[in-house]
Amino acid sequence: MNTPALVRRSKDSRRPRASESAIALALTGFAALFVAVGANRSAAVDLAITVKLQGWRSRRFQRLMAATSWPGFRPQSRVIPPVVVAAWWVSGRPLATLQLGAWGVAGLSTVVKSIVRRPRPLPPAVAVAVSSLGGTSFPSGHVLTYVVFYGFLAHLVALHARPTPVRRAGVASLVGLLILIGPSRIEEGYHWTTDVVASYLLGLAYLLGLVRLYDHFRR
Q1: 150: exposed, middle or buried (C-beta count within 10 Å: 0-12, 13-18, 19+)?
Q2: 39 in any annotated domain
Q3: pTM score of the predicted model
């Protein structure tokens, strides 16, 4: 076997190990936050961060945060995912139906919420955009769903979208959405910082597993 082939095989063998390590680290971080929140050890830090972030409010920033959260609310949260899956299917990429698995992470959020039952932030401690939102706080369903669903969509766009400018713009937009959704949930008073960070960690682990599965079947 020639040298380039050996190099490629070496790189391919390292990728699964790196992915497994990242998944393990993400799950460990999530578990640590799960325990801390359950023992009510993060309340003071959560409140301080929320008050600080909300102190930077401006109308332009508020509009950006609201726009970022908008796709995660009903009815659009029940319309956008199946449309995306159908679009990939019509494009002739049946493996993209794994995007349904990405959407299914919402069920995982429901399970964890039912276990932790952490109350959402409430006035007057913090400002809340919609005080009657209801439900529980840990983890953030918005963040978890965005990281997995839109993160996996970014992976598919990076692989399949053409031409190059469209691919770059699509990936950049989706990554920007993932970055902003966490601060959005805190700034609007819907979640605490530990809710958001835990969702990023759990979502990353789920996403990496899904990406590995997709790439395996694609090869």
Answers
A1: buried
A2: yes
A3: 0.88
Q: How many residues does the chain have?
A: 219
Three-class DSSP category at 142: helix
| Residue 105 domain-assigned (yes or no) | yes
Question: 13-17, 113-117, 196-200 — which is least confidently predicted?
Answer: 13-17
pLDDT digits (tens, 9 = 90+) for 91-111: 887 777 788 889 999 899 999
Phi first, then psi, for residue 208 (nearest 5°) are -60, -40
Burial class of residue 212, CB neighbours in 10 A (0-12, 13-18, 19+): middle
Domain membership flag for residue 17? yes
- The token pair at 36 is 């801390």
| Alpha carbons 103 and 138: distance in angstroms, whole number | 18
Q: What are phi and psi of 139, to 5 degrees?
A: -85, -175
Domain total for the chain? 1
Residue 121 counted as domain residue = yes
Tokens of 25: 């680290």
Task: For the beta carbon of residue 137, count every other beta carbon within 10 angstroms.
Answer: 23
Residues of the domain holding 115:
12-218
Position 10 scores a pLDDT of 47
CATH at residue 159: 1.20.144
Helix 164-187 to helix 43-54 angle (10° resolution) is 110
Residue 14: its pLDDT value, please? 62
